[in-house]
Amino acid sequence: MPSVSAVRPKQCPCCGAPGQPAGNRLGLIGHGLRERLQLGPDGVGEAAELVVVRVRRYLCRGCHAVITVVPQGMAPRLRYRLRGIAWALGRWWQGASSAQVRGEMSPFVHVGEEAQRGWRSLRRWARMLGAAVGLGGLVAPHRQLELVLQRLSVRALATTGELVRDAVEGVVVVDVHRVRPGGPEVPTT
């Protein structure tokens, strides 16, 4: 776990106050730890798992916002890892049914009746990542899904030429924080 000063944001995402102004008292002070549940695989071919991640919180002295700093690859207010989300979308694009994708990505063996018929999260995730990579909803859903995967794949640091695998690696650098509603969460760099 990184120290409080190591991951302190440079500024408050709410009011813009500096996190650690030179010569003055801290603008963002440590405000404890929080546990975040993360589900799904962390990459292509990995098993789905349930992981508890501890994240740091900060309090802004200027506006009193509480900011959570999360590791890269973790999306705000989403239980599934970003790599798992990209892989799920890739499997769906490849033709797997939404129920089959859920079975591969979820660490839970038993699901409810509605979950056996499909997985509505796939459409939400496709819209969220589409907005994060600059796509609107102007094309057919399957084509938009392909475009999302293409835009994610070009962000991968090292490419393999496999669209889904490269998209899974490229998703961790996408700024999903600006398109998700809710309180401030800041990725560590």
What does this 3D model show about the protein?
With 189 residues, the protein is α+β, with helices and mostly antiparallel strands. The protein has helices spanning 82-93, 98-105, 113-117, 121-132, 141-153, 163-170; strands at residues 28-40, 49-60, 66-70, 185-187. It has a four-stranded mixed sheet, with no helix packed on it.
The topology string of helices and strands comes to EEEHHHHHHE
Oligomer: single chain
Strand order of the largest sheet: 1-2-3-4
Instruction: Kindly name the structural category.
Output: alpha+beta
List unreliable stretches of 5+ residues.
Answer: none
Descriptive terms for the model:
alpha+beta; 4 strands; 189 residues; 4-stranded mixed sheet
Topology:
Blueprint lengths: L27 E13 L8 E12 L5 E5 L11 H12 L4 H8 L7 H5 L3 H12 L8 H13 L9 H8 L14 E3 L2
Parallel strand pairs: 3-4
Antiparallel strand pairs: 1-2, 2-3
Helix pairs in contact: 1-2, 1-5, 1-6, 5-6
How would you briefly describe this protein structure?
The chain is an alpha+beta fold and 189 residues long. 31% of the residues lie in helices and 17% in strands. The chain has helices at 82-93, 98-105, 113-117, 121-132, 141-153, 163-170; strands spanning 28-40, 49-60, 66-70, 185-187.
